[in-house]
Design a protein that fits this description.
By secondary structure, the protein is α+β, with helices and mostly antiparallel strands. About 45% of the residues lie in helices and about 10% in strands. It has 26 helices and 17 strands. Strands 1, 2, 5, 6, 7, 8, 9, 10 and 11 form a 9-stranded mixed sheet that branches. A hairpin with a 5-residue loop joins strand 5 and strand 6. Helix 1 packs antiparallel against helix 7, helix 1 crosses helix 8 and helix 11 packs across helix 12. The longest helix is centred in the N-terminal third of the chain and has 42 residues. About 15% of the residues are buried. The C terminus is likely disordered. Keywords: Coiled coil. It comes from Sphaerisporangium aureirubrum. It holds the Pfam family AAA_30. This is AAA family ATPase.
């Protein structure tokens, strides 16, 4: 049996189609030898002085950044100079100082026929009062503003153009690109063709900070030496001389950005490209237009241009190579463009190539799918492609996301192509997170594709390093179990839906007087009498819990209800498992009986009184008990003997008059206590008294009284060996210690003489 994909005639037709497409791309591609052919060229030599270029910038780093310039309004023209200075010229700083007109309007007031009028006349500047002085004062202010504005105007121009390029690339990045171009070659070939274009180009990305409006130019990771595409068909240039340099640039070893490797590579190119060499100039400003000296000048610039077709031609060359030789096969995607194939033929074609739709009988969709979207999947099982058209928002990307996830679940590899990178980013955002981390726009290098590719490679490496077959098999088994359970649930629900739909069409006949037909018809009848039958609970009961006789009895009981019986509605039977056992109940009954007997045996007058108290009185007694316990706790901390005596007297109702009298003197006692504290009395501790004599209690009392009288009369104490002798017998009063905390005196006895 002949394999269709190896049919020589089909392969020949396919190859001729690719050759035609390659020739078409080659014809459309004209080598750009003059920078003037590009849309816009921004020389970095013209950057404002306050913008710094990072010449050592690495891949994916900032080459330069431009802050939005402030808006400086032109200084206002004084009212006196109105009509003397051109307003338009005064607002444009690059036109120079606006000159003062030789003649200008001057207004003055005249009275004509008794009416005051303001008349404006043209007069010479030297005859206009104050005009020359006002102009001389305004010009320095304008010059200061113009100098600042000229600096800001350059930055504003760069800022505006780069933001415009960013807007264009956001919509047409498949058509245009912005590159950093270095190494400007100027040369005139032997046949007289003039060349003036850069040799090295590095794609850049424009990043915008929407909050600060700052614009950043970021270098990407791929530089191209484009000498072959510029000079390949010109005499005097042999591309084999610079093959090695192109390989170094392609591998990333040299030529990137504005670094030293780029300068060194351009110098090597000047030595090798032409038979007689070329001069290298490291200056940044471009040469004059009529300068055709064979040279390479660094002259860096940002070039906004249409994308080149060289890569497309290279793709066609690789496809032609694959379609030649003994192992050549015509791919189905191209074969169906050159011959008519029916759906079954296309499916056979795919099976011959060892491929298929990759869709299982029950594909796994991570996102919801409506019937129309599922129909697309069904059509893919019978054909190799389906065209889906529709306006935005109809679910095309949603369907593709489900299809990609389903194919990956079947172990397939999926390639998604799009004319614009934005569509790929939207699709990636719809995929589950675990899959999205492995997806990247490989050709969208100008929008962070290299970083995404690097992140995807790291994620794959980590997953490969953490891969454990047993663990993964267990996860697959668990997931398959959940999937089977979900499918069973779907089947049960589908069957229930089918049964419900059948029940909706079944005629139940007459179920009660006035109620017959399908369930919907019976419900409609009940709905009509909702005001009467509203007490009925919603939802039916298959088996009635009571018989008709029991229902009649229940109706009679409800009609003869009492408040006590109605209160039982809220009662609930307890859970039998929560009830105590029979032994526990018997024990509680016995304990209750014993408690009653003990209470009866201990019955006295107090218990009789307490038994007659109601709940309110018991609550009051409980409150008074708590108050008494708190007072008792406080009294236990007092060491005074009178406290205990006062409590006992109060409890036994003794000496009531005495304690009431003391209570009446509470305020005076408090005042005396404060006075004692203020005076600073000392507590004196007396020695043990003898039974008789001066050291007895009576003797010491008499001596203390005399000492008080002696001190009150102005007398003084006589201490020490030199104390004067008195005619009368001296009195002696002994003190053992002082209680003020200070050191006691050296003497313990005081001696004094009294004539009384």
């Amino acid at each position: 049996m002949t394999v269709r994909s190896r049919d020589p005639r089909l392969i020949d037709k396919t190859a001729r189609l690719i050759e035609f497409l390659r020739e078409l791309a080659s014809v459309k591609r004209q080598p750009v030898r003059d920078l003037a052919s590009y849309d816009e060229v921004h020389w970095l030599n013209d950057l404002p002085a306050d913008v710094k270029v990072h010449t050592a910038a690495e891949p994916d780093s900032v080459l330069l950044e431009i802050e939005p310039p402030p808006v400086l309004p032109a200084p206002a023209i004084p009212d006196l100079l109105d009509g003397w200075v051109d307003v338009e010229q005064a607002s444009r700083p690059r036109l120079g100082v606006p000159p003062l007109r030789e003649e200008g309007p001057v207004a003055h007031t005249e009275i004509l026929h008794g009416e005051r009028r303001i008349i404006t006349k043209l007069v010479a500047a030297e005859d206009a009062p104050g005009v020359l002085a006002a102009y001389d004062a305004w010009v320095p202010v304008w010059r200061a503003w113009a100098e600042q504005e000229r600096v800001l105007a350059d930055r504003r121009h760069w800022h505006t153009r780069l933001r415009t390029h960013a807007d264009t690339l956001s919509q047409h990045d498949d058509e245009f690109e912005l590159v950093l171009a270095t190494g400007l070659l100027t040369w005139k070939s032997p046949e007289g063709v003039k060349v003036g274009n850069h040799l090295l180009v590095t794609p850049v990305e424009i990043r915008r900070d929407e909050e600060s409006q700052r614009v950043e130019i970021v270098l990407k990771s791929r530089t191209v030496l484009q000498d072959r595409s510029i000079l390949d068909d010109l005499a005097g240039f042999d591309p084999r001389r610079t093959d090695h340099l192109r390989n170094r640039v392609r591998e990333g070893d040299a030529g990137f950005g504005l670094g030293e490797t780029a300068v060194r590579l351009l110098q090597l190119w000047c030595e090798r490209a032409f038979e007689h060499g070329a001069a290298y100039d490291g200056t940044w400003h471009p040469p004059a237009q009529d300068d055709l000296t064979t040279q390479v000048r660094l002259a860096p610039a940002l070039v906004f241009r249409k994308r080149d077709r060289a890569s497309l031609i290279s793709y066609y060359d690789q496809m032609l190579e694959a379609l030649s030789g003994p192992d050549a096969r015509a791919p189905l995607g191209l074969a169906q463009l050159v011959t008519s194939l029916e759906p079954d033929e296309r499916m056979t074609f795919m099976r011959e190539q060892g491929t298929g739709t990759g869709l299982g009988s029950d594909p796994l969709f991570p996102l919801p799918a409506n019937p129309e979207q599922r129909q697309i999947i069904q059509r893919l099982r019978a054909d190799n492609g389906v065209v889906v058209q529709g306006p935005p928002g109809t679910g095309k990307t949603h369907t593709i996301a489900n299809l990609v996830a389903s194919l990956l679940a079947e172990g397939q590899r999926v390639l998604v192509t799009s004319q614009k990178g934005q569509a790929l980013r939207v699709l990636r955002d719809k995929l589950p997170a675990d899959i999205a981390h492995l997806c990247v726009s490989a050709t969208d290098q100008a929008r962070g594709g290299s970083l995404e590719l690097e992140g995807s490679v790291k994620t794959l490496s980590l997953r490969h390093a953490d891969y454990v077959p047993e663990t993964q098999a267990k996860r697959v088994e668990d997931s398959q179990g959940r999937l089977d359970a979900a499918r069973r649930t779907v089947a049960l629900l589908t069957e229930e839906i089918r049964s419900i739909r059948e029940a909706e069409t079944f005629d139940h006949g007459t179920v009660s007087p006035g109620y017959s037909g399908t369930l919907a018809q019976i419900v409609a009848k009940i709905k009509e009498r909702e005001d009467v039958l509203g007490w009925m609970p919603r939802g039916g009961v298959a088996d009635q819990p009571i018989t008709a006789g029991e229902a009649q009895e229940l109706l009679a009981l409800l009609a003869s209800g009492t408040p006590r019986r109605e209160a039982r509605v809220d009662q609930r039977l307890p859970d039998p498992g929560a009830l105590p056992s029979a032994e526990r109940v018997r024990g509680l009954i016995a304990a209750e009986s014993a408690a009653h007997q003990a209470a009866h045996s201990a019955r006295d007058g107090l218990s009789e009184l307490l038994s007659a108290c109601d709940d309110r009185l018991f609550a009051l007694l409980e409150e008074r008990k708590d108050t008494a316990e708190a007072a008792l706790h406080e009294l236990r901390g007092r060491a005074d003997a009178w406290v205990e005596q006062a409590v006992l007297d109060g409890l036994h109702n003794r000496r009531v008059a005495l304690w009431e009298q003391l209570e009446s003197h509470r305020d005076r006692a408090s005042a005396l206590a404060q006075a004692v504290t203020a005076i600073g009395f000392r507590r004196i501790t007396l020695p043990a008294f003898e039974t008789a004599g001066p050291r007895s209690l009576n003797g010491q009392w008499t001596a203390a009284v005399r000492l008080r009288d002696h001190l009150a009369g102005g007398g003084k104490l006589k201490r020490g060996l030199l104390a004067s002798r008195c005619r009368n017998k001296p009195s002696r009063f002994c003190v053992t210690r002082w209680s003020t905390g200070s050191a006691p005196p050296r003497w313990n006895c005081s001696t004094w003489s009294s004539r009384n």
